[in-house]
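Notes continue from the previous slide.

Worked example: a multi-chain complex. Inputs as given:
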Amino acid sequence: MTQAAALAAYGSNSPSNRNRIINGDMRIDQRNAGASVTVNDAAKFYPVDRFFGLGQSADGVFTLQQSSTAPAGFTKSIIATVTTADASVGATQQYYISQRLEGFNTADFAWGTASAVAVTLSFWTRSSLTGTFGGALQNDAQDRSYPFTYTISAADTWEQKTINIAAITTGTWETTTNSGIRLYFDIGMGSTYLGTAGAWASADYRGATGQTNIIATSGATFYITGVQLEVGSVATPFEHRMYGQELALCQRYYVKDAGETLPGPYVNASGAVVGSAYANWMLPVDMRAAPTCTFATTGMTSITTRKSNTRAIALLATATSTAYVDSWTASAEL
Amino acid sequence: MYKLLPNDFMGQPAQCIKRLSDNAFIPFDPANTDYQAYLAWLEEGNTPEPADEQGA
C-alpha cells in the first residue's frame, strides 16, 4: 500500500496527531509516580494521567497501577488487580477504567450530523482470565452508546484488539471543552448498563451483554496499554508521541508540582494590610477549565487560592506573615 | 462539605470555594467538574460554612 493509500484508508489528512487518546501508552503518571491506587468507591481514581478507575463503596475492590509489563514497542501499561471480588454485580453497579475525551479533540468526527465518520479503537491487553470482555463509547449526555466486546483467548498473553465503530448521525455530541466521548473498559458492569455489542443504541450503555465481569474473580489481573482512537476503518500502528508533547497534553487536565520548582511561589504579607498580599504564577499550558487547586506551604498557612483561570493561579494571604508554596496541584479533569 | 472564603482588603469577594474533604480550592467556572459537583450539592439544599475572619 502506498503512503497516500494508507492515509486515505484511515481517513486522515495527517499521519500525526491521529490518536485522540491522551497518554494511551500509560507513560505519564504525575499523581502517583508509579504507586498503586485502590478503587473502592464510586469516585475517580487515577493510576496514570487521563485514565481513571471507578468502583463501588463497601463491595468489590480493585487496584490500579502503572506497570512496566508491556508488549513489544511499549514500556508501560496499567494493571488492574481484583483484591475483593464482587461475584454478583448489582444491576446498577459499575467497575471500569475510563478516559473522557475533550470535545475539541473529537469534533471532527462530526458525530450527530450527516457528516459523521467512522472511527477505529485499538489497544493491547492481557489478563489472567480468558473469555469475552467488554466496554463502550458514549456521548456526554449518556443517551447514545456503542457497546463493544473483544476476546482474550490466552491467559497472561498480550493481544492487540481492534474495534471498528460506525459513524453516528444522531444525538448531541460535545465539541468544545466538555466530554466529547466517554470511553469505558469494563472490570464489571451491572445489567442496567449492558447493551448489544457492535451497534449504536439510544441508551446509557457502558458495556456489552455477555461480557465477563473481571471483578467477580479475586486476584484476577487485567492489563491495558497502546490505546488509540482514530478516524477511519483501519487500526494504524500506535502513534508514539514525544514525551514532552504527551506530558503537555496531560497537563491541560492536571498539573502536579511536588517541589521541583523550589523555591516555589513566595507570598510576603509581613507588615502588609491583611488580605492584600498575593502570590501569582503561570500554569505550564492552558488548561481545559479554571483548575481546582491544592497546595502545601512552609510558613504561613493562612493563605487561600484567590482565583484560578486556565492560565494562572493567584493565592491570597489572609494573615500577616510569609510563606513558600512547597507543592501544588491543579486539576481540570473531565 | 464546603467553606466560603474571605474577601480581600478591598472587599472584593473570592472567586473560589474551599472543599473541606481535601482542602482544595474550586474556582467558580461552569466548565470545572468540581464546581459542577458543588452546584449540585447546593441544589440538594446544602449550605457552605461561612468564611473565616481576615487574620484568623
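Summary box: The mean pLDDT of chain A is 93. Chain A touches chain B at residues 177-178, 273-276, 288-294, 302, 304-309, 316, 318-320, 331-334 (CB under 8 Å).
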